[in-house]
From TrEMBL:
It comes from the Bacteria. It is an enzyme of class 2 (transferase). It holds the Pfam family Aminotran_5. CDD domains: SufS_like (cd06453). InterPro entries: Aminotrans_V_dom, Aminotrans_V_PyrdxlP_BS, Cys_dSase_SufS, Cysteine_dSase, PyrdxlP-dep_Trfase, PyrdxlP-dep_Trfase_major, PyrdxlP-dep_Trfase_small. PANTHER family: CYSTEINE DESULFURASE, CYSTEINE DESULFURASE 1, CHLOROPLASTIC. Its cofactor is pyridoxal 5'-phosphate. It comes from Thauera propionica. Residues 26-394 form the Aminotransferase class V domain. This is Cysteine desulfurase. It catalyses: (sulfur carrier)-H + L-cysteine = (sulfur carrier)-SH + L-alanine. Catalyzes the removal of elemental sulfur and selenium atoms from L-cysteine, L-cystine, L-selenocysteine, and L-selenocystine to produce L-alanine. Transmembrane segments: none annotated.
Length: 411
């Protein structure tokens, strides 16, 4: 097969660390990615040379730190092609971004009987915030089903959309199956029905070019740590006209214009939604990660991961007794599977002993597992530094697990 080798592993020092005396095949990138030296160095340099609190100081270091933080926001803006830098709110990650929308936009806009449309393949962080909002407002959650292949039922989507639908919240890429949803098309249909659209981009931004204006969505959420950045930083894109109309969701320093005991007034977005001292070093690390991804080239990364996924899919599917879960036509680099007679957790443990890091379980998508009638899956998820050798190690480790369990050739 023609898997292009990107040859970037040397930029990720942790990959050279043996695990259980084996070469590490890190295939748990859906959970979090490893960090390149450029990101680690950018964070280190910030604390060594530029650390101060932002937006407060009259002194030079504070102004310098503020410039770096503002530049990081502009880097995120360009990366997802938002029209304006003030449409980017820094958050702790996808989860916080979605909760922000639920508690600010949602509590202000939704009334009893309004509907929120999500899908069966959502991560818990694009389900539970809406359930909380429904409890608070009397709104109702509706769910688009998925097919056996793990694709959205588009006819059901259309049928569920109606004048009561205030919000459509959908994942760009399923973290459990890898299915890529046609978010631009779904956004157009949702807008035609008068609904606002939030896209969960947690599993998308590191794997394909994302253009929020081309998608047309109103909100787009993602986490830095799945994009080669530090943990504790992420972003919410919000269309300017909607963000401007949204009330604060957390109160504190930096989000106000004036405060008195009678009444406080609030800053413009994005500061309105960034109460307290933010993760300044994290934002700078995120910008460094985006610069690194741009240097490698997101299109090259997408092509590399796609070729690796095809190789892995064929190789794993060829093992007797393996069942793939999620065979959508459009997929990102995620391979979910079950091995007959071996619980995913046992499989994960045996693979770990071979130096192969995967994830086993429900992947924070319990309703999706229920849909497939399974408690969980084993999941290998790819990043730019993975190689054919990592896939070969995965396949060899599955063989070994089948030997240990005595299930080989009994598929
Ligand atoms: N949505 C999806 C699709 C995810 O894969 C994840 C992380 N597994 C999240 C949301 C939550 O991201 P975080 O934990 O970084 O907030």
């Amino acid at each position: 097969m023609g898997a292009s080798q990107l040859d970037v592993a040397a930029d990720f020092p942790i990959l050279a660390r043996p695990v259980h005396g084996r070469r590490l095949a890190y295939l748990d990138n859906g959970a979090t990615t490893q960090k390149p030296l450029a990101v680690i160095e950018a964070e280190r340099r910030f604390y060594l040379e530029s650390n101060a609190n932002i937006h407060r100081g009259v002194h030079w270091l504070s102004q310098h730190a503020t410039e770096l933080y503002d530049a990081a926001r502009a880097t995120v803006q360009r990366f997802i092609n938002a029209a304006h830098a003030d449409e980017i709110v820094f958050t702790r990650g996808t989860t916080e971004a979605i909760n922000l929308v639920a508690q600010s936009w949602g509590r202000a806009e939704l009334r009893a009987g309004d509907e929120i449309l999500i899908t069966t393949m959502e991560h818990h962080s694009n389900i539970v915030p809406w359930q909380l909002l429904c409890e608070q407002t009397g709104a109702v959650l509706k769910v688009v089903p998925v097919s056996e292949a793990g694709e959205l039922d588009l006819a059901a989507f259309d049928a569920l959309l109606n004048h009561r639908t205030q919000l459509v919240a959908i994942t760009h890429v399923s973290n459990a199956l890898g299915s890529i949803n046609p978010v631009a098309e779904l956004t157009a249909r949702a807008h035609a029905a008068g609904a606002v659209v939030l896209v969960d981009g947690a599993q998308a931004v590191a794997h394909q070019a994302v253009d929020v204006q081309a998608i047309g969505c109103d909100f787009y959420a993602f986490s830095g740590h799945k994009l080669y950045s530090p943990t504790g930083i992420g972003a919410l894109y919000g269309r300017r006209s909607i963000l401007n109309a949204m009330p604060p969701w957390q109160g504190g320093g930096d989000m106000i214009r004036t405060v008195s005991f009678e009444r406080s007034t609030y800053a413009e977005p994005p500061q309105r939604f960034e109460a307290g001292t933010p993760n300044i070093a994290g934002a700078i690390g995120l910008a460094a990660a985006i610069d690194y991804v741009r240097e490698v080239g997101i299109e090259r990364i997408a092509a590399h991961e796609h070729a690796l996924l095809e190789y892995a899919t064929a190789a794993v599917d060829a093992i007797r007794g393996v069942r793939l879960v999620g065979t959508a036509q459009h997929k990102a680099g995620i391979l979910s599977f079950l091995v007959d007679g071996i619980h995913p957790h046992d499989l994960g443990t045996i693979l770990d002993a071979e130096g192969v890091a995967i994830r086993a379980g429900h992947h924070c998508a319990m309703p999706l597992m229920t849909r497939f009638g399974i408690p969980g899956t084993a999941r290998a998820s790819l990043a730019m530094y993975n190689t054919l050798a990592d896939i070969d190690a995965l396949v060899a480790a599955i063989d070994k697990a089948q030997d240990l369990f005595g299930t080989r050739n009994h598929g």
